[in-house]
Amino acid sequence: MNPTHRTTDKQTSKSQRVAILLDIQNVSLKQWQAELLLDFATSKGRLNWRKLYYNSQSPNQVIAKDNLEKLGFQGLDVPDPGEDSADKALVFGCTKLFAIKTPPEIVILVLGDRDFAGLIAILIAAGKKVIVFARRKSTSQKVINLVGEDNFHDVDELSSLVASNTQQQIENSPPHLTYSEAIECMIAAIQTASKKGQRTSFSCIGNLMRNLFPKYQGVTSVCKHQGKTFSRFSEFVETAVKDGKIRSQDQQLFVIEADQISA
């Protein structure tokens, strides 16, 4: 494959629509794991849907839902106490995504121990790429065979998986933005979101930066001091906060200059 084809493939991948559907009734993710999941998803394309299914009658699930909503997930309550209620709601929600005009092209499923082979087979037959995160020990071999080993990952592999993807991006895509340029992009994204009354959470601002500034392709495209790059968006935010460029409160980002003007 010549360089022109490689460039085209990369551009096509970045423009693909991605959806995450997460069943926290059966798979509990800590907030840092959810951040890694978002990093993984955004490396595959444009993350337009992030849905999680939970039971509001479970205090633990409500806490998990509240934490993940801060990262931009949409919580969908399934109060039915039935054992597979969240699973069934996830299947129904997934099929509804394909009734819209521009459905996702990549579907990331975070599943429990139920056999989702039927849903996955339908998605693949429809030409969709399916990536599954689950517990390997409790997952049907049929599911693993359907998506293939490259598209099946144990939830506990998130750290190593994202680290590997980040390293590949660093090797294949040299940094295009200086730290100062990236800060300007982030401030502009925060200001844009604020003017539109939108959330300024980490994930929302990260996605908006990609949309507004094509040169920004995630934190691996940002060159910090001594030629190194950031491995996670939260690391980039922490550095910007320490440098006094922005302010972070309750997982929301604010422009310090704007705060000072209104004070």
Description of the molecule:
This protein is α/β, with parallel strands linked by helices. The protein folds into 2 domains: 3-169, Rossmann fold (3-Layer(aba) Sandwich), CATH 3.40.50.1010; 173-262, Orthogonal Bundle (Arc Repressor Mutant, subunit A), CATH 1.10.10. It has helices at 3-15, 31-42, 59-69, 85-97, 117-125, 141-147, 158-172, 179-195, 202-212, 233-242, 256-262, and strands at 17-23, 46-54, 74-77, 106-110, 129-134, 152-154, 177-178, 222-223, 246-249, 252-255. A 6-stranded parallel sheet has the order 3-2-1-4-5-6, sandwiched between helices. Helix 2 runs parallel beside helix 7 (158-172) and helix 5 runs parallel beside helix 6. The relative contact order is 0.11.
Brief overview:
The chain has 263 residues and is of the alpha/beta class. The protein is built from eleven helices and ten strands.
Describe the secondary structure blueprint for this structure.
Elements: H1 3-15, E1 17-23, H2 31-42, E2 46-54, H3 59-69, E3 74-77, H4 85-97, E4 106-110, H5 117-125, E5 129-134, H6 141-147, E6 152-154, H7 158-172, E7 177-178, H8 179-195, H9 202-212, E8 222-223, H10 233-242, E9 246-249, E10 252-255, H11 256-262
Parallel strand pairs: 1-2, 1-4, 2-3, 4-5, 5-6, 7-8
Antiparallel strand pairs: 9-10
Structural class: alpha/beta
By DSSP, the count of extended strands is 10
The main sheet comes to: 6 strands, parallel
Number of helices: 11
Shape: globular
CATH topology of the largest domain: Rossmann fold
Rounded to an integer, what's the Rg over CA atoms?
19 Å
Number of domains: 2
Low-confidence stretches: 1-12, 258-263
Beta percentage is 15-25%
CATH class of the largest domain: Alpha Beta
Secondary-structure element sequence?
HEHEHEHEHEHEHEHHEHEEH
